């Protein structure tokens, strides 16, 4: 049996174009003489549709789209992810479903059993779990059709399974000799090699059947889906893998045990860069923008953001805005200009000293006798934020804010200032990883000026200011943040890792106190195992200390 893995990039709610793309891939699979073509989870609607699932018209459009697709399936069979209505008299109104289509007929429908409700997932909010599980016969095979989370609960692989039942075990017990999983599994760094493939390999060996895994590709809001669809044979050998971070169609003969498609290999920092590029490109295009605008400070964060934007969108679609104050060093201005020239982007310079002095004049009596402090520092950031948002309004460009995860974590950012923007591109990239990205981008030629890489980080909001006046060194800070945010360790556990207790307490207090800022931040692209946003839901008002 030849199976085509159709790894496609769809747009939520764009039914007409989603149908067109699915039908196009069906025809391509037929030309490659595939017997069966398999599409990702919720391919018809796009993923994740979220509260659109509560709108009956959305569900109805999706069902009509499925009927249109069904009429195009002849000379080949297809498995397509869609939203099915729940025909039971109880439960949620819809199912996350897969249709098995053959000869212009829906032969069978398979509902998702395990509904994840953790991190960025909230499927129990919308879907009813499968009432029954059954395989389907095709070409002398018994196909066990499953959906994403259904393969993530093997009790031998996971130390603590999340669910009582294992849908794959049930499919095998009912005679399935091929497992097909349609998925929308978001990217996080090192997830594919360290978790997905190990899990698929384990299950294929355990049950001695091939596993066909088809993953979604593309960026939707804060999530990036990396594709990397794969086929693992009954001996646990990966015999094919589709492209990472791009649409693909591969045809695999599951009876051929030889490696048929050699997988690409990337370093972790390469995958982060590719995820950010895909996430940015799709966010801009799917939201209807063409150009982006970025405030350039001469620092590493804005430099990396601009370099990513140029690679994703082209230099003609990126504008840099340089807004020096009396505290900005000439070196920083020069670095921002040099970066703009290296990237061949249009740039403008708007000095803000006169505006800042004007605000100080208005507030002179109110602030008489009070020291220069964070109020004046944040005022500079807000002046810059106003300028860049005004330019965004005038020209219709999307603003990319440039704060990294380390800054967002401890509140080293200004509401209505440098946090302004439509997308916080690197807000899930720790500062130390920002430097890794910069060095990777400079691997062939200097894009980011060397001075930007080598100078100590500074917000330049007061004379001789350095980030480490207020924060521990970033290698220490990022290690503490990872332990607290991504690994959910308490103060005592982090101190036992070798960190100073006073420093740990200070960092955790900063994280806890700045949730109100993060709640108002632009969405960011998720690349780590725990990003700020929908996957980390913390109260703003609380008294928890991290003990």
Provide the spatial order of strands within the biggest beta sheet.
5-4-3-2-1-14
Beta-strand residue fraction = 15-25%
Uncertain runs with pLDDT below 50, 5 residues or more? none
Terminal Cα span: 57 Å
Note the overall shape. Answer: elongated
Please describe the structure with a list of short key phrases separated by commas or semicolons.
single chain, 547 residues, alpha/beta, six-stranded mixed β-sheet, 16 helices, 19 strands, 18% strand, elongated
Please sum up the structure shown.
With 547 residues, this protein is of the alpha/beta class. Helices cover 35% and strands 18% of the residues.
Topology:
Blueprint: E1 2-7, H1 15-31, E2 36-38, H2 56-70, E3 77-85, E4 94-102, E5 105-111, E6 136-138, E7 141-147, H3 167-173, E8 178-183, H4 191-207, E9 211-215, E10 217-220, E11 223-226, E12 230-232, E13 238-241, E14 248-253, H5 268-286, E15 292-296, H6 300-313, E16 318-322, H7 330-343, E17 346-349, H8 353-362, H9 374-395, E18 398-401, H10 405-410, E19 423-424, H11 431-441, H12 450-454, H13 474-486, H14 491-496, H15 501-513, H16 515-519
Parallel strand pairs: 1-2, 2-3, 7-8, 8-9, 15-16, 15-18, 16-17, 18-19
Antiparallel strand pairs: 1-14, 3-4, 4-5, 6-7, 9-12, 10-11, 12-13
Helix pairs in contact: 1-2, 5-6, 5-11, 6-11, 8-9, 13-15
């Amino acid at each position: 049996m030849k199976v085509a893995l159709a790894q496609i990039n769809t747009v939520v709610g764009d039914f007409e174009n989603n149908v067109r793309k699915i039908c196009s891939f069906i025809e391509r699979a037929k030309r490659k003489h595939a017997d069966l073509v398999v599409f990702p989870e919720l391919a018809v609607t796009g993923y994740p549709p979220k509260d659109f699932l509560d709108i009956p018209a959305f569900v109805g459009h999706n069902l009509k789209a499925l009927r249109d697709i069904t009429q195009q399936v002849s000379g080949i069979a297809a498995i397509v992810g869609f939203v099915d209505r729940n025909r039971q008299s109880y439960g949620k109104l819809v199912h996350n479903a897969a249709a098995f289509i053959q000869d212009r007929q829906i032969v069978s429908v398979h509902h998702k059993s395990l509904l994840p409700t953790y991190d960025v997932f909230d499927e129990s909010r919308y879907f009813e779990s499968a009432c029954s599980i059954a395989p389907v016969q095709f070409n002398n095979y018994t196909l066990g059709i499953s959906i994403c989370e259904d393969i993530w609960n093997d009790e031998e692989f996971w130390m603590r399974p999340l669910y009582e039942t294992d849908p794959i075990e049930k499919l095998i017990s009912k005679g399935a000799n091929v497992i097909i999983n349609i998925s929308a599994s978001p990217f996080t760094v090192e997830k594919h090699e360290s978790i997905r493939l190990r899990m698929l390999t384990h299950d294929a060996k355990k049950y001695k059947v091939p596993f066909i895994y088809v993953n979604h590709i593309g960026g939707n809001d804060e999530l990036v889906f990396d594709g990397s669809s794969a086929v693992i044979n009954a001996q646990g050998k990966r015999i094919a893998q589709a492209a990472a971070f791009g649409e693909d169609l591969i045809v695999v003969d599951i009876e051929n045990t030889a490696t048929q498609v050699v997988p690409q290999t990337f370093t972790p920092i390469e995958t982060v860069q590719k995820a950010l590029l895909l996430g940015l490109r799709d966010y801009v295009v799917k939201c209807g923008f063409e150009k982006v605008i970025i405030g350039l400070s001469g620092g590493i964060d804005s430099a990396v953001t601009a370099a990513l934007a140029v690679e994703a969108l082209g230099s003609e679609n990126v504008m840099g805005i340089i807004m020096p104050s009396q505290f900005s060093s000439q070196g920083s201005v020069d670095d921002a200009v040099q970066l703009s020239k290296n990237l061949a982007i249009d740039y403008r310079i708007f000095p803000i000293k006169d505006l800042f002095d004007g605000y100080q004049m208005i507030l002179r009596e109110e602030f008489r006798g009070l020291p220069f402090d964070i109020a004046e520092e944040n005022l500079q950031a807000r002046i810059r934020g106003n300028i860049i948002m005004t330019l965004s309004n005038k020209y219709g460009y999307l603003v990319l804010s440039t704060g990294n995860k380390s800054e967002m974590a401890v509140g080293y950012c200004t509401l209505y200032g440098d946090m302004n923007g439509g997308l916080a591109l690197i807000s899930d990239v720790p500062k130390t990883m920002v430097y890794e990205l910069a060095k990777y981008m400079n691997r062939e030629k200097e894009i980011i000026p060397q001075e930007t890489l080598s100078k100590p980080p500074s917000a330049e909001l007061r004379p001789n200011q350095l980030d480490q006046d207020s924060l521990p060194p970033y290698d220490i800070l990022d290690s503490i943040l990872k332990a607290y945010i991504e690994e959910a360790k308490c103060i005592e556990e982090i101190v036992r890792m070798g960190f100073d207790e006073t420093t740990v307490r200070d960092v955790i207090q900063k994280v806890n106190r700045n949730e109100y800022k993060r709640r108002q931040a632009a969405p960011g692209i998720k690349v780590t195992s725990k990003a700020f946003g929908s996957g980390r839901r913390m109260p703003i008002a609380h008294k928890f200390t991290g003990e």
